[in-house]
Design brief:
Blueprint (H helix, E strand, L loop, with lengths): L6 H16 L5 H4 L2 H21 L2 H27 L5 H27 L1
Organism: Candidatus Taylorbacteria bacterium RIFCSPHIGHO2_01_FULL_46_22b
Protein name: bAvd-like domain-containing protein
Pfam families: bAvd (PF22296)
Length: 116
Amino acid sequence: MHDLDIPIFKKTYDLYKSFHTYRSSIPKQDRYTVWQKCEELLLEVLEGILLASQIGKAEKVPILEKTSLKLNFLRVFVRLAKDVKAIDGKRYVSIEVSLDEIGRMLGGWIRSSKER
C-alpha cells in the first residue's frame, strides 16, 4: 500500500506507537479518560490522513480540514494530560514536537490541495 509511504502518515503512525507504549505508565484514573480521548483523537487523525490519501482532489480539502480540527483537539487534550500530571513534561514536549510537525505537514497539504 503506497499510503504508508506518505511522510505525514508515517509520522502520525509512529506517534500512535509511542502513545501506545506510554499507556501502561499513565495513572489508572487518567488512562480511561483523558488518555483514552487522546488516543481516540490520534486514531481519527490517522484515519483522516488515510482517507484523504485515497480520495479525489475535490473531496480532499474538507477531510483534511476536519483532520486538522481533530489535531487541534488532540493538542488541547495532550496539554490537559500534562496539566493533570497524567504525563510528565518530557513526554509532553516529545508529543508536542510531533504534533507540531504533523500540523505543519497537514497545513501544507491543505494549502497545496486548495491550489489545484
